[in-house]
Amino acid sequence: MRTAIISDIHGNLEALTTVLADIDNRNVDRVICLGDILGYGPDPVECVELIAARCEWSLLGNHDYGALYEPTNFNAAAEQAAYWTRAQFNRETNDEDAVRRWEFLGKLRVRSALGNFLCVHGSPRRPINEYIFPEDAINSPVKMGQIFDLVDKHCFVGHTHVPGVFTNEPEFYPPADLGGVYRFNEEERVIINPGSVGQPRDQDPRASYAILDEDEGLVEFNRLEYDVETVAKKIHAIPELNNWLGDRLLEGR
Ligand code: ZN
């Protein structure tokens, strides 16, 4: 079984279609999403349509929550983007498609299981909102210990937009340190972040996602170039979306 794991789309249609086209060429059996379909980006409605059509299931991220219910702990740009995003869904409330979209968003899960893997957007402790940062492996061993205590075997998370593997040592390995592939072994329990499709923050603007191959016992990390300039232009053309949200995409931060 090969499962594509995508996360943090953030209304970036160009990145999402590029990733889904790549997935179509990689002998993948199913696609799942770790949340944050919405927020920041210019095409939230189209991204929800695609995720609903292509993913077996999706989790609820803090930006999905923010657009659906209430933006909490957001900076001014993210809060304004959340209100703008919600308005895009409210434009056509009588349309059958709009009703279907709201139903899909209303059913997003907070956590889910994928074989031996727990899947959450943020962390097992606070599934929607807690960040597990790469530097936590060095600076916050107590936090990492408490988080690993909640994981039976392995876990997938999104939320930081930084791809890589946390081991229970604790240690963090970016994909480059692993040659792009992590192989499971008996000794280690791991928390894996596939990175962000629509807003990478590891200084690399390319879309990021992962494929879990359960038969081979590995996870491969993939990066893909997409038309980031077009997305930045779309963001710059929408007054409610702060220009900075487009600028950061170009730099992957
Ligand atoms: Zn996110």
Could you characterize the architecture of this molecule?
- The chain is of the alpha/beta class and 253 residues long.
- The protein has a single domain, classed as Metallo-dependent phosphatases (Purple Acid Phosphatase, chain A, domain 2), CATH 3.60.21.
- Helix content is 34%, strand content 20%.
- It is built from 9 helices and 12 strands.
- It has a 6-stranded mixed β-sheet with strand order 3-2-1-11-12-9. It has a 6-stranded mixed β-sheet with strand order 4-5-6-10-7-8, with no helix packed on it.
- Helix 1 links the parallel strand 1 (2-6) and strand 2.
- Helix 1 runs parallel beside helix 2, helix 3 (62-68) packs across helix 4 (76-90) and helix 8 (228-236) runs antiparallel to helix 9.
- The radius of gyration is 17 Å and the shape is globular.
- It starts with a strand and ends with a helix.
- The relative contact order is 0.18.
- The model has no long low-confidence stretch (mean pLDDT 95).
- The structure holds zinc ion.
- Zinc ion is lined by residues 8, 10, 36, 61, 63, 159, 161.
Short description:
The protein is 34% helix and 20% strand.
Question: What descriptive keywords fit this protein?
Answer:
34% helix; alpha/beta; Purple Acid Phosphatase, chain A, domain 2; 20% strand
